[in-house]
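Quick log. Single chain, no ligands specified.
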Amino acid sequence: VKLEKESELRIEIGNDAPLRLRLLNGNADIFGTELSLPPKFGSIFHPTQIRFVFSCYGAMVEIESTTETDYIVDETPIVSYVNVHAILEARRTCAKASPSSDSESFQ
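-> predicted structure:
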């Protein structure tokens, strides 16, 4: 399955079968945890552990298990989450660099 930039692979699987994924190239994550490249046998997930795979820059993912359905969406809330994280991280860095007596650093 090819994931384009800022796209998400949504996966629905049964409750009794584990899901095996393998990242072939690019980068992708599951709930912020990056998939490693390339695991020899793929990563195995319990059915309740995974519902989507997100890629910021694009990736190729192989699904080695049977799914009830899987599809790619281009509009995902994860992009907003990544942007909020970047803004908060920049503010934390700025606050660390400011003297602690500077009251304007908290505005």
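Strands lie at 2-3, 7-12, 19-26, 29-30, 33-34, 43-45, 52-55, 59-63, 69-73.
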